[in-house]
Task: inverse folding
């Protein structure tokens, strides 16, 4: 409860005005200056909407990538071939032919902690069917790949050991490739597509895995490793079939560390690598990838939210500025109120209430805009829509705090005005 017109005590005309009534009076005053009020709110709206939208996007991206990596299995180690060098320029990991299919077979038989092993070759290629064409990623792999990656055909079948041994020209399409090349509802099993000019019979359609941002895990085709090595890549390893990477699935996540140790020692022995020589391969752990990514995204989100918070401070400065101008413009009104008995606290409450109304209304609008922006971003870039209750409370609380702080100085100045001086002002 606020008391206004307390200074009217000499006439014993003091009355207590409910806080809601003070807010209503403040709202009516602000409504009479719509443009100025709107511009004052703008900083608060931008600040809160930025904080909520950025926090939501950061959490959504983080959750989406976690789901995607976990769908591929957090109990999997990926071994990538080393980096090739061209002159003094070091190329990307996997560009050198330092891993072979024979390495994968050796790991499967000599590393006790490795439950299942799969090798793969990967290339981008142009695929054509009946005048339709698309550029997609071709995976040449073995029979263990579906189990290791936890991805299986939803129509048709995967290729067999005999088809792998004979380098059969069979293909299993990802759902995105199917939609690109074929009409909706068409039976594609048995159809023949052309990959780099050669015909392949479609024998299956993989189950959808979804996409996160630009990474579409359904935009790929699987063919036998032997076929890919022979027809699309060419075997350029000194010994055996060259591969880009090897996947090692542990019996459980706890055995990954033991499997990593065994695989590293085995590959160093097979590749004649001795200390202090560097490995010509690199091991990555899916669980470590999730942890690292979560950490990086978390830090990035905090940094960007902090930057967005600066706009809230700017919004507060705007409120303070407008309130100071309002005090100057309404000096005569303040003088009249004081002359009829309004106390300093009543004037202070009046201007503080106006600052609070600006913060509350600006905060509500900013919150709505922030949620809307987050929803649009999640719909466009295909990541989970997550709104943190904490970010809303923090953003709204910060807005209210900024409004109160920004309103204190102008309100205090207004409350201390001398009535006679105020009445004489123009």
Result:
């Amino acid at each position: 409860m606020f008391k206004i017109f307390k200074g009217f005590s000499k006439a014993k005309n003091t009355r207590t005005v409910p806080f809601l009534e003070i807010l209503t009076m403040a709202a009516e005053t602000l409504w009479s200056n719509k443009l100025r009020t709107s511009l004052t709110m703008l900083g608060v709206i931008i600040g809160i909407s930025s904080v909520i939208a950025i926090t939501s996007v950061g959490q959504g991206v983080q959750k989406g990538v976690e789901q995607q990596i976990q769908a591929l299995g957090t109990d999997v180690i990926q071994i990538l071939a080393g980096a090739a060098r061209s002159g003094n320029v070091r190329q990307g990991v996997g560009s050198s032919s330092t891993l072979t299919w024979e390495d994968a077979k050796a790991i499967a038989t000599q590393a006790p902690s490795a439950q299942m092993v799969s090798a793969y070759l990967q290339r981008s290629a142009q695929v054509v069917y009946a005048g339709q064409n698309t550029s997609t990623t071709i995976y040449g792999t073995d029979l263990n790949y579906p189990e290791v990656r936890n991805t299986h055909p939803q129509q048709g079948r995967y290729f067999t050991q005999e088809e792998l041994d004979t380098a059969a020209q069979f293909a299993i399409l990802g759902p995105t490739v199917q939609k690109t090349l074929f009409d909706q509802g068409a039976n594609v099993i048995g159809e023949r597509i052309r990959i780099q000019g050669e015909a392949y019979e479609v024998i299956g359609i993989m189950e959808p895995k979804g996409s996160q941002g630009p990474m579409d895990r359904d935009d790929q085709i699987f063919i036998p490793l032997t076929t890919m090595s022979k027809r699309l890549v060419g075997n350029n390893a000194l010994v055996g079939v060259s591969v880009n990477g090897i996947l090692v699935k542990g019996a459980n996540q706890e055995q990954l560390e033991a499997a990593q140790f065994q695989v590293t020692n085995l590959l160093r022995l097979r590749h004649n690598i001795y200390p202090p020589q560097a490995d010509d391969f690199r091991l990555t752990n899916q669980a470590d990838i999730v942890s690292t990514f979560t950490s990086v995204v978390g830090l990035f989100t905090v940094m960007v939210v902090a930057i967005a918070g600066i706009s809230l401070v700017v919004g507060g400065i705007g409120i303070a500025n407008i309130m100071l101008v309002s005090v100057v413009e309404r000096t005569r009104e303040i003088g009249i109120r004081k002359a009829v008995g309004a106390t300093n606290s009543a004037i202070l409450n009046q201007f503080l209430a106006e600052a609070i109304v600006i913060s509350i209304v600006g905060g509500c609008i900013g919150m709505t805009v922030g949620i809307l922006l987050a929803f649009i971003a999640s719909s466009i870039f295909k990541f989970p829509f997550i709104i943190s209750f904490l970010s809303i409370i923090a953003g709204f609380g910060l807005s209210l705090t900024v409004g109160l702080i920004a309103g204190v100085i102008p309100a205090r100045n207004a409350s201390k005005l001398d009535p006679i001086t105020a009445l004489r002002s123009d």
The first strand starts at residue 2 and ends at 4. DSSP finds 13 helices and 18 strands in the chain. The longest helix spans residues 286-329. Residues 1-13 have pLDDT under 50 and may be disordered.
